Give the backbone structure.
Amino acid sequence: MRRVLSLLLILALLAAAGYAAAEGELKPYSRETGYVYVTLGSYPQRIDGGIPEEDANTWKWASNPIADPSSVTVYTDPLLWRVLRVDEEKAYLCSEYVLFAMPMHTNVTEYKKIGADFGQTDLSHYLNETFAHDAFTDEELDMLLPCETFGKVFLLDSSDVKDKSIGMGTTIKVGLKAWATEYAVRITGAYVFLVRHGAHSAYWVRNQSSSDKRHARCTKDGGQLGHIISDRENEGVRPAVYLDLNAFDIAGGTGSKTDPYVIVPKAP
């Protein structure tokens, strides 16, 4: 409720000030200019502070887990998203960071049967029932379009993380790597690879392994795509969404990673 009131207050103040949408547009990844970044929603991310991929912070966090979350202050920050693709209807966004860790599906025997349909997994249900309502207001959720049968929050497909046209691809291995937030590492237990590999974190993609149906696909230490058993508790989650191009205004920012576009519901 407080987030809804805050969002309404921001919109009211902007309207009272004669606000007009900031100039700018969402553009897909290009090799020449890289990614456009936006903020949308918010989620627990910081405790002591620090940016995930700078100064191997994630490796330090992995060595200092928090057993009792009530003993610390967890700060909720705006969610940072990369714009991967844009078409006439929507922008395809993925979280810049790994936000938490949890299994793809805890019942491995069941996953063998249903894993080909990500929408039936524990993780898909969690993303759309718990995470979506923790991370977004109702107004923000209305700005998102569903992905096939997976709901409004989902994971990247294995074809996405092989796609060089969106800055990923198996020959650009750093493009697959993602770093976890302090909350993801210290409280939810997201796995962190050794510093010599980059201190990044593994994360799920939404596909079942073709070689072992007990396993789901995920990223590995070198940034390559592999697989691991579906009940693995410390595998990271890097959400993705479709943003309706007709549902938002840009309230500020320049679209860079350090000054992302601020996305708000379109003014009435």
Observations:
- The radius of gyration is 18 Å.
- Residues 2-16 form the longest helix (15 residues).
